[in-house]
Design a protein that fits this description.
single chain, alpha/beta, Rossmann fold, eight-stranded mixed beta sheet, globular
Length: 268
């Protein structure tokens, strides 16, 4: 889905560059593919929380508290994210002795409002603030983004302290990915406004960074993850997942790399 969306954006850029400029104002809507379905968790220990943002939106979040002393993952999903499709992810986190707060963006899964880059960053801050208001310290929190959520996660990690940052199938910016899928429109791709330019923020992140990317990713090119890794400060680790596609990393052993990474970077 995201690959088709990025190609559509690139085509829109090309039309705008040739004079059909009015189409450019619709570019951002291709980025987001929200599901409005509200689904109750069917995993033991998971509850639905409602988080209020500073600009008046109410977000749906799935929450599983960690066992005493365990980390809590602050998770940001992709552009078509739905909490009910990640049962394997949530169980792996629980089995690893951790908890999670999965914040679903405005316009998604029962959250109010409509998505935009500025709005998603505000949603991320609201999720972080919810955790600190419920007694979690910065060193309890692991910020984790998948796909589009990596752009949200990097910006938050540049603004707020945490134990670590985990980026699953990340990109340097939406513009860069669209240009890779349709190189002929590279010169006009800068017209997009919701670019989630992690390349401009990653150097401001000062915490351990783990980047995991499948080398058969059909959505976000593998070299996007490599380029972002080059820009990141240490300590950092890059994991190449052989034969993994964009959304198969959890199935293919993502958390087998997450747990040793966190063990190497304990709470301080």
């Amino acid at each position: 889905m995201l690959k088709r969306i990025l190609i559509a954006i690139a085509i829109l850029f090309g039309l705008a560059a040739t004079g059909v400029g009015a189409l450019a104002i619709n570019a951002n809507r291709f980025i987001y593919h929200p599901s409005t379905a509200v689904v109750a968790p069917n995993i033991p220990g998971v509850t639905v929380e409602h988080i209020h943002t500073s600009d008046g939106q109410t977000l749906v979040a799935w929450y599983s508290p960690p066992p005493h002393g365990g980390p809590v993952f602050l998770f940001f999903d992709g552009n078509g994210g739905r909490p009910q499709v990640w049962g394997g992810r949530w169980r792996r986190i629980q089995q690893g002795g951790a908890g999670f707060l999965a914040v679903y963006y405005r316009g998604y899964s029962g959250s109010t409002g409509a998505p935009s880059e500025a709005g998603l960053h505000e949603d991320a801050r609201a999720g972080y603030d919810w955790l600190t208001a419920h007694g979690y310290s910065a060193q309890d929190i692991v910020i984790h983004g998948f796909s589009l959520g990596t752009g949200v996660a990097v910006r938050l990690a540049a603004e707020r302290p945490a134990r670590a940052l985990i980026l699953e199938a990340p990109f340097t910016s939406i513009n860069d990915v669209a240009s890779e899928h349709a190189p002929m429109f590279a010169s006009s791709s800068s017209m997009i406004t919701d670019s989630f330019a992690s390349r401009d923020w990653i150097a401001r992140v000062h915490m351990p960074v783990l980047i995991v990317h499948g080398d058969h990713d059909s959505v976000v090119p593998f070299d996007e993850g490599e380029h972002l890794y080059e820009l990141a400060n240490g300590p950092k680790q890059f994991v190449r997942m052989p034969d993994s596609d964009h959304a198969t990393l959890v199935r293919d052993g993502l958390y087998d790399h997450v747990w040793p990474f966190l063990a190497e970077h304990p709470r301080t």
